[in-house]
Model the fold of this input.
Amino acid sequence: MPEPTGTVTVNETIVVKAGQVFDGGGKLYKAGKALGDGGQSEDQKPVFVIEPGGVLKNLQYEGADGIHTMGDATIKDVWARDVGEDAMTMKKPGNVTWSGGGAFNANDKIFQLNAGGSFTLENFTADGFGKAVRTNGGHQIDTDIVIRNSEFKNGKEAIVRTDSTSATISLEGVTFSNVPNDVLAPDATEVSGA
Ligand code: DGU
Ligand code: CA
Ligand code: CA
Ligand code: CA
Done:
């Protein structure tokens, strides 16, 4: 992870408007107390919200409830330096692609998929997590999860965990160490590369 070029304390969620590009210039966007303490309480606010078609790139962030996506989103060269409750949540259906960057020090989840569509993760590094990708527990989430050319270290449970039989999961070029499972999913879930 590169050293940040500066630090911004975020006390009001930054909204990336539909179709806009937010380039963070390599800075660290750190959740202030107004957004949450970065622990495991579920009532924290996001540092960034990405409206449909928005692009978030070239930055680091930490704390609170991370990034929320509201539709299609592109996230490029973004580092979650110290994950808060989680690092990113798909709140609404869409196709979300995250390429480059990484995430560190998540108590539990990095990516929380509460809505369907697709989630593609590539050229990513994770170190320290429970589940790197989790579809909403106990729900049928209709999504295609693709992870490629990525590395996962020091996970307590799995790279991907789902309860959904309408999810598909594909791993290509994924390496992991000190993670007990690559995928935890029902037998009926379509899984490849695990
Ligand atoms: O049913 O939806 O942990 O978005 C439980 C909730 C829970 C979410 C999730 C999240 O799964 O709050 O952070
Ligand atoms: Ca949560
Ligand atoms: Ca959350
Ligand atoms: Ca699920």
